[in-house]
Each structure stands twice: as C-alpha cells, then as structure tokens.
Design goal:
With about 100 residues, the chain is mostly beta strands. It has strands at about 5-10, 20-25, 25-35, 35-40, 55-60, 60-65, 70, 90, 95, 100-105. The strands form three sheets. A four-stranded antiparallel β-sheet has the order 2-3-4-8, with no helix packed on it. Strands 1-10-9 form a three-stranded antiparallel β-sheet, with no helix packed on it. A hairpin with a 2-residue loop joins strand 9 and strand 10 (about 100-105). The model has no long low-confidence stretch (mean pLDDT about 95).
Length: about 100
C-alpha cells in the first residue's frame, strides 16, 4: 500500500545539494532544485553503491561522487555512456504547507 511519508521542512532542504533520508529500509536522496521542484531517488548508485546524496547536481541529474556516473533525477536512469544500465528508484514528491512528503510503499 502506497502512503505519504513526511520527509522534512522545505526550508531545511539545501538548494541544489543532496539530502540523505531513511524511510524504513529505503535510503533516499532528496534534491531541491527550487521551492517548487524537488526530486527523490534511491540513494545508492547502481555502479559501485556510491551515496548519490553526496553527489553534485547538474541540470536535472546528479553525478555520483565515486565514479562520476550521472543519474537522472526525473526517472532514475543513468545518462550518457552508462545509458541502458540499471537505474535507481524514483519517488513521487508532494509539497504541502512548506513540508516535503514522498509517496512510499
């Protein structure tokens, strides 16, 4: 059953930087690109299990800090030369009254 899980106050999420959060067994990386655009993806890079929340945001992608894989914030898929490889899960985000929620299982 999918449910809405509270993540953080929007004001506490850094702009264009990652925030690692745990929701049960799910490790997520949260990225705020603006006050109305936030993405949530799995935090573990499929290449060498790097922490994506520690990566650098470029456009609508994050660059893994270990081996520079680029992962789309839109769909969790690897970009460029790594296209076609395994990706990471994505989570729907909801902003309500200055609070961020994600839809989780």
């Amino acid at each position: 059953m999918t449910r809405k899980a509270y993540i953080a106050e929007m004001a506490d999420i850094p702009l264009k930087m990652g925030l690692e959060v745990q929701n049960g067994a799910q490790s997520m990386a949260i990225f705020k690109l603006s006050d109305t655009e936030v993405y949530a993806i799995g935090n573990i890079c499929p290449h060498r299990q790097g922490p994506l929340a520690d990566g650098m945001v470029t456009g609508k992608a994050v660059i893994c800090p270990l081996h520079s894989w680029q992962i789309s914030l839109l769909n969790g898929e690897p970009l460029l030369e790594n296209a076609g490889k395994a990706g990471v899960p994505t989570y729907e985000t909801i902003i309500e009254a200055g609070k961020l929620y994600v839809m989780v299982d």
